[in-house]
From TrEMBL:
<feature type="domain" description="Ciliogenesis-associated TTC17-interacting protein N-terminal">
    <location>
        <begin position="1"/>
        <end position="221"/>
    </location>
</feature>
<keyword id="KW-0963">Cytoplasm</keyword>
<dbReference type="Pfam" id="PF21772">
    <property type="entry name" value="CATIP_N"/>
</dbReference>
<dbReference type="InterPro" id="IPR047501">
    <property type="entry name" value="DD_CATIP"/>
</dbReference>
<comment type="similarity">
    <text>Belongs to the CATIP family.</text>
</comment>
<dbReference type="GO" id="GO:0005634">
    <property type="term" value="C:nucleus"/>
</dbReference>
<dbReference type="GO" id="GO:0044782">
    <property type="term" value="P:cilium organization"/>
</dbReference>
<keyword id="KW-1003">Cell membrane</keyword>
<dbReference type="GO" id="GO:0005856">
    <property type="term" value="C:cytoskeleton"/>
</dbReference>
<dbReference type="GO" id="GO:0005886">
    <property type="term" value="C:plasma membrane"/>
</dbReference>
<comment type="function">
    <text>Plays a role in primary ciliogenesis by modulating actin polymerization.</text>
</comment>
<dbReference type="InterPro" id="IPR048777">
    <property type="entry name" value="CATIP_N"/>
</dbReference>
<keyword id="KW-0970">Cilium biogenesis/degradation</keyword>
<keyword id="KW-0539">Nucleus</keyword>
<keyword id="KW-0472">Membrane</keyword>
<keyword id="KW-0206">Cytoskeleton</keyword>
<protein>
    <recommendedName>
        <fullName>Ciliogenesis-associated TTC17-interacting protein</fullName>
    </recommendedName>
</protein>
Length: 320
């Protein structure tokens, strides 16, 4: 990972969009991945955002991953959210990891129905050399697809849903048919090993420019695939709409702006205490009278206040 060149990362900055289909070809949902340059705590990094939404057996489900990753694929912060909405109850899983003081802090919250369970673990960063998470895995595979080769017996470490460190390996290559065309696609097999359970295996296939054309978990009845080959122009300018509430960067900007406006409004109200008195008197009078035409009532109630301003201002306001 230390051999990654900035020019390679530049080629990874684009969006992918696939559809999720059943074994019979039924459309079940959508899958998208975007990679872009960003900053976190004044540190340049890569922002990876992936989102899967759909339904299985008519039950809505989805997964969202948002990760801030350094240019050598070290995870600074990552948020993982997975949900399944079942009739009468649901399943919700959230994982959040962040680097702090030489440690990787990992917080997990699982909610089944109304019952939530929480776990918090930490690992020293010295124990996580070669860590590949769900977010950094998406960027790593794009890089390997652009190189169209991987070192023999390449392996990394990952953290499973039990918050234990496990091994993950990559290998493979294959030709695929996309739409009516036969294209050479670089295939990657990702295996998440486990001591207690069977390994989990993913097959992902990429075009020579790094675009994802197929993604499937072995044993799953669904496949994520590209419906047709995009033109070069489409690949360069493809845009994927994000759910801003689930994007850490966009949500952070929203919350900052929200707090800024609240502070500004509170300051104005402190400077003009008569506002609260005026509104309180109006509402009390309104509820006592209970008029049918609230707008007409408000106009007549506030009309005497207009006499406190010069006539030209009243005319100007009425013409707006």
């Amino acid at each position: 990972m230390s051999s990654i060149d900035p020019a390679e990362l530049q080629k990874c900055v684009f969006a992918d969009s696939l559809v999720t289909v059943s074994e019979g070809g039924r459309h079940l949902g959508n899958f998208s991945v975007t990679v872009e340059f960003a900053h976190r705590v004044q540190q340049p990094c890569m922002l990876v955002h992936a989102q899967s939404q759909g339904a299985i057996d008519d039950s809505p489900c989805g997964t969202t991953v948002t990760a801030y990753i350094t240019t050598d694929l070290e995870v600074l912060e990552e948020d993982y959210h997975e949900y399944v909405k079942l009739e009468g109850h649901g399943l919700d899983k959230r994982f959040h990891m962040v680097q702090r003081d030489g440690q990787m802090l990992i917080n997990k919250v699982t909610t089944v129905g109304e019952v939530s369970n929480k776990w918090l673990v930490s690992y020293p960063m010295s124990d996580l050399k070669g860590l590949i998470t769900e977010g950094s895995n998406l960027l790593l595979m794009r890089l390997m697809a652009l190189r169209t080769k991987i070192p023999e017996h390449m392996s990394f470490i990952s953290i499973n849903q039990d918050l234990n460190i496990i091994c993950t390996t990559f290998l493979g290559m294959k030709q695929l048919e996309v739409g009516a065309e036969s294209v050479e696609a670089f295939g990657l097999e990702r295996i998440l090993h486990s001591v207690a359970d069977s390994p989990t295996t993913w097959h992902c296939y990429f075009l020579s420019d790094g675009h994802l054309v197929r993604r499937v978990q072995l044993g799953s009845p669904t496949t994520m695939r590209l419906q047709q080959l995009p033109s070069k122009q489409d690949r360069e300018f493809d845009k994927i709409s994000l759910v801003w509430e689930e994007d850490m960067q966009m949500r952070s900007k929203f919350l900052d702006r929200k707090e800024e406006l609240k502070a500004d409004h509170a300051s104005y109200l402190r400077q003009h205490p008569e506002i609260r008195t005026l509104i309180s008197d109006f509402l009390q009078f309104l509820l006592l009278r209970k008029p049918d035409d609230v707008f007409q009532f408000a106009q007549e109630y506030f009309l005497p206040f207009a006499s406190r301003h010069p006539p030209e201002l009243i005319l100007k306001a009425s013409s707006v």
